[in-house]
Structures are given as structure tokens and as C-alpha cells.
Amino acid sequence: MSFISYLINGISLGSVYAIIALGYTMVYGIAKMLNFAHGDVIMVGGFTIFYAVSMQGLPPFVGVLLAVVLCTILGITIEYIAYRPLRQAASSLAVLITAIGVSYLLQNLALLIFGANTKAFTSVVTIPAIKLAKGQITISGETIVTIISCIVIMVGLSLFINKTKAGQAMLAVSEDKGAAQLMGINVNRTISLTFAIGSALAAIAGMLLCSAYPSLTPYTGSMPGIKAFVAAVFGGIGSIPGALIGGVVLGIIEILGKAYISSQMADAIVFLVLIIVLLVKPTGILGKKIQEKV
Amino acid sequence: MKKITKIMSLILACAMTMTLLAGCADAGAKDAAEPSSDAAAGTNADAEDNGNAGTHTEAVFMIGAIGPATGGAAVYGIAVKNGTELAIKEINEAGGINGVMIEYNFQDDELDNEKSVNAYNTLKDWGMQMLVGTTTSGCCIAVKAETSNDNMFQLTPSGSAVDILKDNDNVFQVCFTDPNQGIGAAQYIGDNSVAQKVAIIYDSSDVYSSGIYEKFTQEAENQPFEIVSAEAFTADNKTDFSVQLQKAKDAGAELVFLPIYYTEASLILTQANAMGYEPKFFGCDGLDGILNVENFDTSLAEGVMLLTPFAADAEDEATKAFVSAYQAAYGDTPNQFAADAYDAVYIIKAAIEKSGAMPTESVSDICDKLKVAMTEITVDGLTGEAMTWDSDGAVNKSPKAMEIVNGNYSLIQ
Questions:
Q1: I need a labelling partner for A32 at 20 to 30 A (CA). Which of A107, B141, B177, B385 fits?
Q2: Closest residue to A140, CB basis, from B246, B247, B274
Q3: Which ipTM score applies to this complex?
């Protein structure tokens, strides 16, 4: 019975990782860069909702919408100011370091603006928990919403990329930036759009993360961000279904590892599995092998 | 063109290296000067020139304090900052220590060991003679290695790890050591038959938490209750406690012992509530502050018990006066950390009066005098009556148990 409980908790945790991982994977797949500031955009989303809903008493829907808009603007701004100037000139390493810099900048700005005191987030999910097997298993409303949003977002993203013109442009940019530009695709605008979508997802991830684990500090996004990055690599970075599978599998391994092996070693187990997967399948579970043609 | 840029950058690099070296040489000279003044140890003029960095002309006692004023344990750091400040203000208004005024400086360490050592160095440059700090155990262990080298008198209000007192004779504590908290908690639960089956959730990456945990489990063997589950978490994995709680629930624990800090405890309370698990929660002084978590539903903390040496609603005169002065100055009810820090300043005052140390002496001479005086004095403070110290620095006093009732800490009689 507790096994089922653990499994549900694992899927719930994994779904949060999966939504965050979607943001990582999209940006990597299209802009070919690791946006380490993604976790901190999540934190900004969390704070926006906290102030709008818990402090100002706005309806949760408005709060989430506000967070999505704010994070989208933030994402586009970060891309425009910090990443775009480096895209042509510098090596990919420079962009990576810049991303880490942006991450610290956001954390410290949040520290300055919101203060360091932990804030207890009031869950914006109002669905009641489901109790099964005479109350022995509880599935919280947050878990249900997280899992459903995760699936909806994944399906929506896949449709967007495969069916719309803008999505096709993204695919083209991801395959060959130069050729895409020659075909009349505005590369800069496409990458901006990617960041906008990624950051909007971050706002939603912030809402779900803070609802499930209701403690909000300027560092809230950093560790889940790293775990989600691992999930993205695990599932095959650049692949959207891969992010979902990677996230959920990671969450389940983490919770089951905690439950049956050692609660202290949870992270060690997660990263050990990652190493093994990468040794066997270097591109991750669903990653495609890209062949360089000469 | 390219060549010119290269040459220019080379010149610039050279210039920068030179300034760097110059900086080093300066610091080196200063470092070298300090031990020599210690060795001379006697000529007062010498000590004043080198030891005290000469930032002040009039002789005053320079007291520094360190704690996390920002970060996950900010409640503690701010409390220590305010408590120290309040006590120093009072002493200065009443004419100082033996007629000598006190100057005060607080530095933030963000609960980071490295930043704590940096904060200590900043204070040393400022001319600090005695340190009230640091606030948390981990940082305190990092900083005590430095103070022990410098022979700087250090009195930590709330750093409770045993390691803080190891391998030195210049560090003293106002609060209990972790083993005492662990033993005290186990004895309290056993003596008052609070529960028969006990589960523990602790932070294995934190010296405070794992220190209490170890002693608690040792002492539990002599007590009439049974530990049915002991689960850990780490600093990198402290958002999801579903597994730890599920295990406690499955094991039938009536009481969950939480020797951890309040941030994680607030999450544990929320998650236990979400899964419909309602045991008794019992913690140590780390839980102090849980009611101050912004927007936290304090009804979840109702009935939580904690062992802590200070209760803001205690009826004695000293506590009442302190609480009202603190509220007037900072608009907040003081917690245990504020009281510890307040006591720390008065303990230093008592030790200085006993030893007759003067601000004109070197840091090391003051420290040597205070070390001796600490083992001789008995101080009645907010956090304990008739507090005395061993030569290793541990305090002797007895803990109080509190329960959260109607959103307030109240003393269990």
C-alpha cells in the first residue's frame, strides 16, 4: 500500500521536474544553449503569484496569468540583453557562463527585493484531495493538476511545433541556423519566441512547484532547476516527450530510492542512474544521434 | 592594429598584477606586525599601534557580531543583531562597562561558512576585540578556527554544536550544546510520557541537526519510549518529505521529533497535514521562528512542542522588561536568539568587570583575561538563572519546554 503512495508521490514530483525540463529542452533544442537561469525564472513566477494571490488577494487565475506575462517579458529581455549579443561572436561556453551569471543576478535581485525570509506559499489549487483505500492513499489536488498540466503542455507543444508555421521555423532553426536564415526565417525572432514560450512554462512550473512544496525563497528555483536539467539530459535533451519521460522517471527514482534504499542517498542514487543511462545511451532515452555531414 | 591591442592588453595585465601584488605586500606586512606585537605582549603602546588597527582614538570596547541577516535562517541573524544592539545600548546609557563605552558592528554571513569567515575578517579590520557570534553552528565552526588562531575572545549566543568548543579555549557558548538538547529532549519525552512510539526526521547534512539526532537516539535507549523510524534529508533535497512522513505514519509513530530548523519544519507540517497524518511534533530551539514564516498557516503549528531556554511570555521582571524594550525598538516579539544575544553582551560585561580588562590592551591579552573570568562568574540572564561555564566553554543551565498555543509560544508549567 505504501508502495503505491510512494509511486504517486514520485509521479507528482516527477511531473514538476518534467514541466521545468520542458523549458530547458526547448531552449536547448532550438537555441543550442543551456539556459541555467530557467530555474530562477520559475522563482520569479512563484513570487509574482505569491504577491498577487496571497498578499493582494487577487483570484488565482489572474495571479497565474500575471506571472505568465511577467515571466515571458523577463525571458525575452534576458535573451535580448544577455544572450543575443553573444550568439554570433562568442563560443558556446561564453553563453553558458552568462546564463549562470544571469541565474545569480536573478537570485540576488530577488534577495534584495523580496528579502530572505521564507514565505509560505498558499496553494492556488482548489481541487480537493482524493482518498483511496480507506484513506491510506491520498492523492492531493496539486498532484492531479500537475500531472494533467504536464500532459496538456506536452501535447500542446508538440502540436505547436509540428503543425504551425512558427513551430516549423523553430525546427528549421534548430537544424541549421544559417540555412534557415537563407530560407527567409527570422532567426532572432524565432529564438525570442522560444524564450517566450520557455519562460511562460517556467511561470506555470513555478505555480505548480510552489503549490506542491509551499515554501518560497529566492533560492527556490535553483535545485529543482538543476534536477530538471538532469531530467532533460536523462530523457534526451532537445526532445519534448523525452523531457516528460525523463522528469517522471527521475521523480520516481528519487522517491523510491529514498523510501527503499536510503533517505540520505536520494540524490546520489538519482545521479548514479543518470551516469549509467548516459554510459549506455549517451544521447539520453529519446535523444537522437545527430550525424555531422561533411 | 592587432599587435597594438596585444601590447596594450599586456601592459594592462602587468599593471593589474602589480596592484595585486602591492595589495598582498601590504596585507603581509600587517599580518607580520601582529604576532610580533603579541610576542612583545606588555608594552601597551605597541599593542595599540598594531593590534587594534588604530581606527578609534578614544578607548572603547569594540564588540562585533556575526549572523545570517539574510538567507534561510535570517530570523536568527536579525534577532542576534537586535538583541546585541539592545543590550549594548542599555549598557552605554547606563555608563558603559567600568566607565568604558562599547562600539558595535554587525556583519551578515548569509548562513555560509566562507562568508562568515569573510565577515570575521571585516570585523577584525574594523578593530573588533570581542566577538558575539556566530549565530549558527556550521558558520561558528568555520569562524572559531580563525578566532582560536588570533586568540580573539568569542562568545556564541546560539551556535550549539560540540565541535565549536573543541580544540580551543577562547570560545564560550550561551546556549546549550547539541548533545544537551538531544539528551534533554529524550528525557523530557520519557519523563512526561509524551509518547511511546517516536519517529525522527533530521538533516544529515547539518551539524546541528545530526548532533542532536545522535545524542537523542543514544539517550532514548534509557527511556521508556521506542524509536520506530529515523529518516534523514539533505540540504539539496529538502522540499519533498512525503517519504519520511509516510514511513513515520506506517511505523505508527505518535510523535515526530524534528531536530531541524523552522523552514523545513514548516514544510513538514504542511505536508503531514496534506496526507492526513496528525502526530505530535516535538523540536528543539531550531523550531523557534516557525510562527514568523510569512503567510504560514500557524494553525498547522498548533500543539507543536519545543525545548528552548527562553519564553517571551514568561512572567519574571527581567523577561518582561526585555520584551517590552525589544518590541518598542524593533516592533517584533523577541525569540530565543535575541535573548541569547542579549545575555551574551551582559555575560561579556560581567567577565570584563571580573577581570578588569581594558580596551587599550591587545586582543589577545583581553581574551586571556576573559577566559579566566568566564569560569569564575555566575550570571543571571534571560535564558537561564545562575549560568556558569566550564573551562571548555559549555554552559550549565536547565531547559524549558514550550508549546505553541493559539499561535503563541507558551511555557509548559
A1: A107
A2: B274
A3: 0.81
